[in-house]
Amino acid sequence: MRTVLTIFIITVIVQVYSIDAYHLRFRRSTYIEQNVQELFQFAKNIVNDSGPMINAVIEAMPDTEDYEEYRGELENYLSRLDEYKENSGMCAKKSIELMVSFMDVMMPYAEEEEEISPQAKEVLRLLSENGLLNLQQQAEKWMENFDDEKLQEEYETWSKNDMNNMTSIWTEIC
């Protein structure tokens, strides 16, 4: 009787451990997938929101030589946005590349206000009025929730199966 009880207890422990291990595995994948999906969603938001925002800024920007450099950079970004929309490919890769391009274009406006030209201040004001603040808030929210150490720790324990579960996210075509 004691042996049967011991075997029963061991069986229950193994089953509970298996369920618990599955639960931990699910949490790990969910955390990583959640961060990746949120990043891709933010990149897609930039794709959707940046075009109208930049078009509005270009229209409102004074049509003087002082603004030609800024206008050219914004128009160059719009060309990359058009390429994104015209050419199909892996959505994640395309969206992240466009997000990086957008950040490159916005970088001069991230400097201290005292250090930028009056024209750059005006372009920044126009960008802010037309949606840049909303995109900045989305980026800040993602950064607040992002835990690099946790992501790295969980990534190091990823299995081939975990990576396969992410395939649909990485290979979506748009």
UniProtKB/TrEMBL annotation:
Domain of life of the source: Eukaryota
Name of the protein described by the UniProt record: DUF148 domain-containing protein
Organism expressing this protein natively: Musca domestica (House fly)
